[in-house]
Design goal:
alpha+beta; 11 helices; GMP Synthetase, Chain A, domain 3; 4 domains; 5-stranded antiparallel β-sheet
Length: about 375
């Protein structure tokens, strides 16, 4: 009997696969097993059980499982946990004593205490040589100080995300993928840092979870804000809704919602009576799309009709009023120019302003041009 076990040495660590035979093959999820690694023996708990090797791994490179964990192994694990707590407190005390600009996150101890790893974060490179000497003299074993990023810090410590659940990196994510602000724009999210950032201060990892769905929807969706010519007339696409797989369009008389299937049928001219109710209000619009004037059967624009009271249409009355006021203003301007031309020359009223600066030359040339009067 043989099976493949995916084990983790730490709760937030990677999953490593080993082959189990005989008694070890009876291991199930949450069981503890003793395995041999390149750095010595290790106690790990089972996370995955497979009958076949995972894809991408050569069965010859997978190492075997020694045996299931016993009482002595759990006693050694409890002792390592106690040493870990003491090392964590001692290292933090020495960091404060040396005044190092670093934050200790976690401590990991090998099963046989052959090596102790200290994980920390820091804004820049830290000279911790004196700290390493003190830790070596304290624990009498190999010491490694490993600097990690803020995402790995959140993965180790855990926390509660904006959704109210445990952070995905602490719960099940083992590898980090790059997240860009472009994903937030494609998903039409508010670009508020407090809304799209996680506990680590970086962009939410869950933006990658629906990236393929949004990319597929945008490939099938028309361009937002563009006018399209359809058998029902011109239609403008206003918004898109991925969750309903639909579009909000302007059909001439208010907004209408169409599914992407109905939109494709409409653009290709295959839409039947099922879309008549969407555009029925548009057919009653006399001005047509984009405010065009209605046309007669001969193709010529229909002249505006008199309302019977002698009132002209609004456009004609505005143009007549504009011509009247324009003529009156031109006459007044001509009279003022003649009056200024016959008046005696006197001191210029232009002077220095409140700030003491002279008028611009461009303004002088403009005033002289106006004094010449109409040609």
């Amino acid at each position: 009997m043989q099976c493949y076990l995916g084990v983790k040495f730490r709760l937030q660590g990677q999953i490593y696969y080993f082959v189990a035979q005989d008694e070890a093959a009876a291991a199930r999820v949450t069981d503890w097993v003793l395995v041999t690694t390149d750095e010595g023996p290790g106690l790990a708990h089972v996370a995955v059980v497979r009958d076949e090797p995972p894809p991408g791994l050569d069965p010859e490179d997978i190492k075997p499982v020694q045996r299931l964990a016993n009482a002595e192994d759990f006693q050694a694990k409890a002792q390592n946990d106690q040493v870990r707590k003491e090392a964590l407190a001692f290292c933090r005390e020495k960091i404060r004593e040396f005044g190092l600009d670093m934050k200790l996150v976690d401590v990991e101890i090998r099963f046989d205490q052959s090596k102790i790893i200290f994980y920390f974060t820091a804004p820049a490179r830290i000279d911790f040589r004196e700290l390493v000497k003190v830790l070596v003299s304290k624990h009498r074993t190999r010491i490694e100080l490993r600097q990690i990023g803020v995402r790995h810090e959140a993965q180790i410590l855990g926390g509660i995300g904006n959704c109210g659940r445990i952070c995905c990196c602490h719960l099940f994510m083992r590898k980090f993928e790059p997240v860009t602000i472009k994903l937030a724009k494609e998903q039409q999210l508010f670009l508020n840092p407090s809304k799209i950032s996680g506990a680590c201060g970086r962009l939410l990892c869950c933006l990658n979870f629906e990236r393929e769905q949004y990319a597929d929807f945008q490939r099938r969706c028309p361009k937002i804000g563009k006018w399209y010519e359809t058998p029902k007339g011109e239609v403008k696409v206003l918004r898109a809704n991925m969750f309903r797989d639909s579009l909000i369009v302007d059909a001439g008389e208010g907004e209408r919602e169409l599914t992407l299937t109905e939109w494709q049928e409409l653009v290709q001219g295959k839409a039947g009576s099922q879309l008549d109710h969407v555009f029925e209000s548009k057919s009653n619009n006399q001005r047509g799309p984009r405010g065009k004037a209605p046309e007669s059967r001969s193709g010529k624009p229909v002249p505006p009709e008199d309302d019977g009271g002698g009132h002209q249409p609004r456009s004609e009355s505005r143009s007549a009023e504009k011509e009247t006021t324009g003529g009156a203003s031109r006459d007044a301007h001509t009279q003022g120019q003649k009056k200024r031309a016959h008046s005696p020359a006197g001191p210029s009223r232009r002077g220095k302003g409140k700030s003491g600066s002279r008028p611009l030359k461009g303004r002088k040339r403009k005033s002289r041009k106006n004094e010449e009067g109409p040609q």
